[in-house]
Amino acid sequence: MSELEFKHISVMLNECIEQLNIKPDGIYIDGTAGGAGHSSEIAKRLTTGKLIALDKDPDAIKTASERLAKYPCAEVIRSDFAEIPAVLDRLGIEKVDGVLLDLGVSSHQLDAAERGFSYHNEAPLDMRMSQEGVSAYDIVNTFSGAQLAKILYDYGEEKFTPRIVNAIVDARAVKPIETTTELAEIIKNAYPAAARRSGGHPARQSFQALRISVNGELDRLAEALDRVFDRLAPGGRFAIITFHSLEDRMVKRAFAEYTKGCTCPPEFPVCVCGKTPRGKLTTRKPIEPTKEELEYNHRSRSAKLRVIEKI
User: Fold this and answer.
1) CATH code, 177
2) For the segment 96-111, what is each residue's pLDDT rounded down to a tens digit?
């Protein structure tokens, strides 16, 4: 894969850079480097500072390494963003001034048919960002009906889950379901005719659910939310771009917890719990893409950027 083949338009690039409030001598982490769009803009603004760019996708690591080679301040490491504290420990770094996570699937991963993320292209059922471990093929063909139903309900919020699961179980009893288009067709045929005529592609939510399950996305996010905030220096910022309601809900709740102060009943004359806010939100509401961005990057349409600053 050449560098040119890794295409990805960085979502809310200007907004992210502005919100990170970059100091030239600061230490920053891009936990989802992808095509190094955000990383490059961070690196440009550093003088004596350091950028640590992480990704678990080998294709992304190759591309990010090429694109960041001209910045001496940048170090590219293959790792999951949930492992940020372990990476910092290995590097002997205690605190950082900013962390960015872009939780979207890169355009490269969607457009490279052989990666199996898209229901539009014929490809082996895969969906592994790290290109290792359990694939979508394994889940679709070996998980029980109950396990499949839980994935589609919990991660896809798919209201036709029972019909889809029954159709998958029936189809795989005849032969394994091997390709993305094969699975998409099974899901489409399981949908009621009226529902097929309205809304987007019937397979969209199921494919999202499988991708989240394959990559343990919500587990990784929960781990990062628990661990990464603690590694921020005072004044450091944690910026996260989410793309669906499950992720956004998790981030919103975690950030609300960090900003929570005294929990004593209002009738207490003085605080006895001793709790003080650990962070403050930089904007009251999440930042969303501008109308201009939506016109040239339709994949940003569901994106939300939330940012918290450590007190």
Assistant:
1) 1.10.150.170
2) 999 999 998 766 666 6
